[in-house]
Amino acid sequence: LSYGRIxxxxxxxxYGFIEGNGREDLFFLPSSLPKELLDSKQPLEGLEIxxxxxxxxxxxxxxxxxxxxxxxxxxxxPPPHLASRAPPPPPVHMVPMMPHQPSVIPAGGxxxxxxxEQRVVVGTVQSYDVSKGFGFMRAEGLNGDIFFARSELPVxxxxxxxxxxxxxxxxxxxxTMRDGKFRARKLLHLRRVGGPRARGRxxxxxxxxxxxxxxxxxxxxxxxxxxxxxxxxxxxPLEELKELEISxxxxxxxxxxxxxxxxxxxxxxxxxxxxxxxxxxxxxGEIVNFDPTKxxxxxxxxxxxxxxxxxxxxxxxxxxxSDRRDQVLGKEVEFEVQVKxxxxxxxxQMQLSGGAGPGEPExxxxxxxxxxxxxxxVDNGNRQNYGTFTNRxxxxxxxxxxxxxxxxxxxGRQFVELPLDHPRRTVEDAxxxxxxxxxxxxxxxxxxxVDDFPEGPTQEVGEDEVDPNEPAIPLGTxxxxxxxxxxxxAKKGFGFIRCQGLSEDVFFPRTALPKSFQGQNIRxxxxxxxxQVSFNYNxxxxxxxxxxxxxxxxxxxxxxxxxLLKRTPIPAKP
Length: 574
Prior knowledge:
The protein is mainly β and 574 residues long. It is 8% helix and 33% strand. The chain has helices at 35-38, 80-83, 162-165, 238-241, 271-274, 367-379, 386-392, 398-401, and strands spanning 2-10, 15-20, 23-28, 48-55, 61-68, 120-129, 134-138, 146-149, 169-176, 182-190, 197-206, 211-215, 222-225, 246-253, 256-264, 282-291, 296-301, 307-311, 332-339, 345-352, 383-385, 406-410, 413-417, 482-489, 494-498, 506-509, 532-535, 550-552, 554-557, 562-565. The strands form 7 sheets. Strands 3-2-1-4-5 form a 5-stranded antiparallel sheet, with no helix packed on it. Strands 6-7-8-10-9 form a 5-stranded mixed beta barrel. A 5-stranded mixed β-barrel has the order 11-12-13-15-14. A hairpin with a 4-residue loop joins β24 and β25 (494-498). The chain is globular.
């Protein structure tokens, strides 16, 4: 045996180093420590020890069979330092758990950690190499990068480009390799980062009562409500739930652990599940809970996977005076979402959806109100953020706005916009009338995209057609150029726009398209290649120009009285 001293020990990382005898520091793992040291609350740095030095399969020096060094006792009695020392209590920091330990949860008596599970960590993607199929993350409290392979990514993200992964928050199981490096397994994309997280399985579920319990490895009987499950599993039997590995956020009530925000590991999220409500976005939902004595409740939106909190003062005027739950429950309302600093959602400016009484037609907006709205949009470059717009014109239902204006998604928000053919648009959109359609297989790689549409008319305007007093308009916020989709791959979720006047084709992700065109099944999607669009333009979106908001242009087919996608030949590359 050799003699030395523990120089560093990192419980959170699962390794340490020993110094002594003039040799290089030796690496060791927690499995090399005896139970009394693993259970000790005292820091191990500086502790004198004995150990066995050996060389591992990779030829690297390591230490094992570590024991605390005890000097020979004086004759006539036990060692002085052991005579009155009680056995050290087991440490909390030595139990592998998730970051933001459950011990920080406010709880009367604390959570009893009876078991140990593989550590669950939350980190952020820092780099990703698409061609090599791996990347690295960083996590708070861990020094060093954490490796992950493409195969460990959630199913819905494995085909995404680098730009779509960077900065995303991921929950994962942390594994420390023999060389001390970190590796992430079973990644789960977190749309919001809340409290500490854990993973486990359902052990009891009372469908008729609306709650159940989970075993997560470090605590038995973690309570959860049916509303915390994904919506498609609310009515699932216990036999089905028991087969699923589940991730959840840990909270506590009266000192007992509770789970919320349950996510199923290894299951691909549907496109409709992936989009998180944005601040200022307008949703329609049903009031599912209301406590008239405490003046708050929850609304369940059709396009959101969680119930959203509201207070009485946000209720529609027709319901704000209700003193019974049954007067409010089940009402369909339209409301604006507010995202708080902690990521939680709140419902504001709630209105009864539809608004008119049974059999009564919905009233129209007054002409002078519409005129004022048009003036407001013209002054702001044809469009305005929906939240800002509804603050300027409060208590106006979305259904009424849609009769006069466009409501579009873009840059992660919703906007109210003048129609493309509105005579008061500050920048006229010249839209070629030529139409061409062409079947083209979806490409396997972006660099393989080719132009097989014939070259056609462009957006250039001849000098004879320009008013000499017409000013040149630089591209900027609120100004959308016209372009043509050069190629789009529904499966991979990205495409490119060709625009006359721009030297490079513009990249756009799936989320830039209208919701109804964000599907991943090619058979259910119309061919978008050759469709004319207007789009916002970011000249420096990572590796090149990028758009986060693409509007598809339509044309009216009088013979069939319907709207069709407006197609045009793809311009030649500048």
